[in-house]
Amino acid sequence: MILDGLLPVLISVALALLAIGALRRISLWRAGQPESVNIIAGLMAVPRRYMVDLHHVVERDKYMSNTHVATAGGFVLSMVLIILVHLVGLDNSLLAWALLASTALMFIGAVFVYKRRQNPPSRLSKGAWMRLPKSLLSFAATFFIVTLPAAGLLPVNFGGWVLALVLMAGIVLGLGELLFGMGWGGPMKHAFAGALHLAFHRRAERFGGGRSTGLKPVNLTAKILGVSKPSDFKWNQLLGFDACVQCGRCEAVCPAFAAGQPLNPKKLIQDMVVGLAGGSDANYAGSAYPGKDVGNAKGGPTQVITEGLVSPETLWSCTTCRACVEECPMVIEHVDAIVDMRRFLTLEKGDTPNKGAETLENLIATDNPNGFAPASRMNWAADQNLRVMADVKDVDVLFWVSDGAFDMRSQRILRAFVKLLKAANVDFAVLGDEERDSGDVARRLGDDATFQSLAKRNIETLSKYRFNRIVTTDPHAFHVLKNEYKDFYPDGQAPEYEVFHHTTFINELVKASALKLDMYKGGTVTYHDPCYLGRYNGEYDSPRELLAELGIELAEMERSGFRSRCCGGGGGAPITDIPGERRIADMRMEDAVATGAELVAVGCQQCTAMLEGVVEPRPEIKDIAEIVVESLIEEVH
Amino acid sequence: MQPDLSAKSLKVTSLISVGQHPKSGRARRAEQDARAVELGLTLSDDQLEMLHVGSGDKTVMRSYLGMGLPKMTLLKQGDRGDAVPVLCDYLATHAPDILLTGVRAESGEASGMLPFLLAEKLGWPLVSRIAEIGEVNDGVAEVLQALPRGQRRAIKVRLPFVASVDNAAAEPRQSAFGPGQRAGINDMPVAGGDDVVRSGWEESPARKKPKRLKVVKAKTAADRFKAATAKASGGGGKVLKKESPAEQAQAVLDLLIEEGVVR
């Protein structure tokens, strides 16, 4: 065919441009801070991480996962075969037939991509992404046709100049999008950056069914604390931003976005891309931050992010609920990035909005966020006759009371749980006035200095006593104790205890028949998964099992389990209090009302406070400990 | 009232002390002193000197520095030292245009006498309990003094002067950890003897004063509101406005003699 001479040249040029573009992109990532990765092991792990871990997430949308398998699989296979058949020139009809099959597969996939783009949901970005299906189709179709002669299905000299020109145009379009565009920031960039992101992910433990949710510590002696400029991110964080496919699944689940607060996780990641590459967000074709126009953000690798690229309110709108991270098919870590930037605002600029500064000052001066006298921490338990660690020294279970001790509503949860512990004859004690805030709020507000100070002092206290388990009713303290304190143990020491959330612990007691329970007598019940228990720690089952033990058949909300919607109380969001059009707690209550439930069971004092803050009429809100206590059959001695 | 440009070249010194949290008793950035620093920063952010006499608790000094100053001066002195002579010596050679202090320290002696003693020794005017410093023109500053119940009194005062900063002044900015850690502390060991008078004192925790029970007679919320916000209506006393300063001074002196303060 006439194109025979030209085709290898085109393919070579496109591959060369891809290589140059890729090297340029890599140099952009390398502007970030050093972070050691295992290059060989990382690259070797890519196929598994791609086909298992990533596919698991994509598969939540069956249509898209099948489409992607056909398109991407077809493309990768086609590209290998194109190089063999058309560039190297291997004259093997078997290869040519295989190439026909792979381009056909890719074409079918591309047809579904095309169909999806006919009437795209609002979460999808438009712009260059609307062009992609056409490019995919022309790539698959033209290479199918030019391969027909090699397979012996058409005479070698088939076609005339007109057909050759048409094919030529198709090839240029296809190669341009899929190879040139991959290296030079087109939509296909996601394939190249995504593969390397999977290889060099900062939280490699997440792959293979693992979990890694604890924030990374700040080196407090560094020249600059937190992230002020894109180049302050680790290089593999920058790489991660570049992997974004702008599918907008994060946007669809983000509670702040839904509430009309100025945050859209997808736009935030795209702004990070603008920052690392330099330029403006004028080409961004997705949903904006609510209430803000697109096109005004400008940034560069060495420009301060909060001065022109992303406004501080955007960063402070996040509840750190991790819904975006859970939903991201490219395994991007939005929350890490947000907290990194908050750290700069708090630790370097001293600019934590609204009650942030006051809360942090209280935490420094009184070890609790509301500035109560540290010596009044045990006042709630004046009538409880609790044993204190300072007296008993050695105990089976340490009950971590948390700052709920200072809040009258939370005290009801604490009392209920103590009653259960006593009824089950658990050998337990509390730290009393020696306990301090776990540091959760300080850390999410970006003040890692205060967090680390609290953590180290708490660890010192914990190390004085012997116990096997810690149980707490606060999922935030639970997460911090379980996942974040281990970074702050002195060298050579590690925590020697297990940490439990009270729902897990009560469930174990019930299973071991240590508690005698009656059946629940109320009406319909639904369960709200706290983010820090569910998404952060994977505990979805114990609370449900426990409620089932009481004979409760849950009326699940549409968004439950790993898709649970935040109550709005995490990440210091009630403290920084960025205005939106709606309240997140109100939206969550609407979810609960939609199930027809008369009672919302929760496992978190913060969720309790947020949901009870919704105006009546609304279902009642009770912690699981309170529900279990109501069904407790007390033995008379 | 925004300070004008000429105010930017003012030399301001803010004195800082180690505060004490009322609930935890822990050392902290003192509320009024932090306001004095905040006021100093708004008056002249590059010519503000932050000065402390004492042992210089590291975390407390750093929390003041975190407000954005590149450095501070620490006149190092033992816990039992008397700050007044040391400050007088230092200020005699490093005289600022405006010297800002808190009204009263949160720990230690906390007599509230320091600004008065300094003003007396330096021979400068003192404005107590200020809320704001406005324009400074031709060596005269417009100062707003805070009075009870949100009232303000405008005062003109010639530089240099001493002012104690009231809780009514603008809230201090948040202290940022990073800059606070990196800022420099110019350590200057100073002589200066122990506070002899104080060494003879015995310290004990304060006891709560018994409070007269207040019988609320108000029947409605409006009455209660009125009772809570009404000016204290002492029976005695008189207001002298038109009289000459000599007459006014005589009236004060008469009262002091009558009360047995002056004998």
Structure, explained:
The complex is a heterodimer of chains A (637) and B (263). With 637 residues, chain A is mainly alpha-helical. Chain A has helices at residues 6-29, 39-58, 62-88, 93-116, 128-147, 161-183, 189-199, 235-242, 249-253, 255-258, 265-277, 312-316, 323-327, 334-348, 356-366, 389-392, 408-423, 440-444, 448-463, 475-484, 502-511, 541-549, 573-576, 584-594, 605-612, 624-630; strands at 279-280, 298-299, 397-400, 428-430, 469-472, 498-501, 525-527, 599-602, 620-623. A 4-stranded parallel β-sheet of chain A has the order 4-3-5-6. Chain A is elongated and about 100 Å long. Chain A starts with 5 loop residues before the first helix and ends in a 7-residue tail after the last helix. Chain B has one domain (5-199): HUPs (Rossmann fold). Chain B has helices at residues 31-43, 58-65, 83-93, 114-122, 177-182, 196-199, 221-229, 245-259; strands at residues 12-15, 18-20, 27-29, 48-54, 71-76, 98-102, 126-137, 140-146, 152-158, 161-165, 184-189. In chain B, the strands form 2 sheets. A 9-stranded mixed β-sheet of chain B has the order 9-8-7-10-6-1-4-5-11, with helices on both faces. Chain B is globular and about 60 Å long. Chains A and B meet through helix 14 and helix 15 of A and helix 5 of B.
Provide the descriptors you would attach to this structure in a database record.
heterodimer, A: 637 residues, mainly alpha, Fumarate Reductase Iron-sulfur Protein, Chain B, domain 2, Rossmann fold, 4 domains, three-stranded parallel β-sheet, 5% strand, B: 263 residues, alpha/beta, nine-stranded mixed β-sheet, two-stranded antiparallel sheet, 8 helices, 11 strands, globular
